[in-house]
Amino acid sequence: MPGWLRRLSLRNKLVLTILICLVLPSVVSMNVSSLFTRDAVRTQVTDSSRESMRIVSQIVNAQIKNMIYVMNFIQFDEELQPSIRELGRANETTDKGDVLQYKQTIAKRMSTVIDSFGNLSVTVLLPNKEYVASYTTFAFNPTDFMKKSWFSAVEQVSGYNVLWIGAEPNYSESTNQPYLLSAAKPLRKNDITYGYVIVGLELRLLQDLFNQYQNNESMVIIDEQGRILVDKDSTTIGTKFPYYDQLPKEDGSSFVKVAGEDYILLSSHVTPEWQLVNMSPYKTAAQKIESFRKTDFLIQLFFLVLFAVTLLYMVRTLTKPIARLVQTVVRIESGQLGERSNITGVDEVGRLGYVFDRMIDRIELMLEENRREQELKRMAELAMLQAQINPHFLFNVLNSIRLKIMMKGDSENAELISSLSSLLRMTINRNNEYIPLHEEIEIIEHYVRLLNSRHGDRVNLRISAASDTLLIEIPRFLLQPLIENAYIHGLKSKPGEITIASRICEDGRLQLEVRDSGVGMTTERLEELRTHLVTRPTKHHHASRSPSLSGIGLQNVLERLRIIYGHRFDYEIASGPDQGTQIVLRFPQQAGKEG
């Protein structure tokens, strides 16, 4: 946000926002209206040209379909096929009368279809250079078709497709037009070509159709190279359409400029190779719409002024209590906590003022309570400092007692005091959250030794730790709660064996296992325990942690590992009646880095 805008008051920001919200839509509306008006005119011209295009396209498609129909008729008519095949097999030894009979049969059958169209010139050409034509052949020998450059492409036509040749010089004396629109098709059976059919369409009908349009509007048929095939001006046939490169990629429309005037180009495929193109002048209709735009602008301007006056009055009314609230806040900031806004009302501003005053009341009360709590806290800290005993003093005293006992020859009790000293030192020292596994095992050995000193040598601790796991760091006091649970709940304070094992899993994680030879659990009790452990501990569980060694619990141990290692941690619990209990923990080797 610019600096000048940040420095404006809330009221001025609202006024500026309102003006922008009122003026900007009007400006945008005028521009969009202008844009839509231009698009509407273009759409109108395009729709008109497209309608003309559609009518012409229907007529052109009808002529194209007539050509296709004649070629298909000759290829599939059952009465024609025997005569065409016999004529195609004729040679010098064939009786001339039979050849003439074949030609007459073919010509008579062809005339039943061709005569109904009246503007087609049809040639049936056979590989042995025999032919049948629907036109006089005195001035043109149909076998000359075989010398044309396009004739070799007829043989390449696949299936029942057609080769659209284009505008060919007129070879029929029945019309005086310089060109015929031609197409050819091979006659095949079982992939063997036994003849060819060439159809020429007179351009008179299409040219008369194109002549119906204005002089500045043109309509042509072009091939895929852009050459003109049909135009109302025959002199342009065979030349390239000048705006071929600007035609739309697919059937559609585009705009071009000709002598400074806009034209719209429409194209539509009448065959896969030929396009019907319509070129129409683009005449603007902006003058007809200009009056509507001016009227719309005046209406918007009137309502703009009306809304601006109304909203500015409403803004002033609404922001006045807010300004008073700001003044109250400024005075409170300066230390005058007794100030109140005294704003009333049922709207949001009134409720805001009421809530703000009540909030200041509570803040004053909280500040007073906080002063009292700070005084009590300082008194408690002073009492704690006065009662604090240096932990090193305790360790030194315990070591002195151990030395005196050893000097008296009681090495067993001296060793117990040493274990107690080591255990207390590890308990009090909280500097390291993680310790090597061998140190954790050493703490467990001290702990079990102290347990046995209280209840007799009833717990046999077995260590089965892989050598490559001893230096891996694990969370401090991770195993002690498990040993305590095994002793209290598994062995029921009776003699037995507790085993600690460790190894590296295949996925690189550390696996710790604690099992006992105690009473175990029933299947129902085991399921109940697993269900309980799946539930995340509540706030009460966290609060239950204490420096005592027996106050953590199995669930807190698992939750502690979940927090540290996340999804990389998992565990298993197995047990059975009189089969003891086994707890397996798996987590990454690097503590605190792979959670």
Automatic annotation (TrEMBL):
It is a multi-pass membrane protein. The chain crosses the membrane at residues 297-315. It is an enzyme of class 2 (transferase). One of its GO terms (molecular function) is protein histidine kinase activity. Keywords: ATP-binding, Cell membrane, Kinase, Membrane, Nucleotide-binding, Phosphoprotein, Transferase, Transmembrane, Transmembrane helix, Two-component regulatory system. It holds the Pfam family His_kinase. This is Sensor histidine kinase. Residues 316-368 form the HAMP domain. Its EC number is 2.7.13.3. It is found in: Cell membrane. It comes from Paenibacillus violae. The keyword Transmembrane applies. InterPro entries: Bact_2-comp_sensor_kinase, dCache_1, HAMP_dom, HATPase_C_sf, HATPase_dom, Sig_transdc_His_kin_internal. CDD domains: HAMP (cd06225). Signal peptide: none annotated. It comes from the Bacteria.
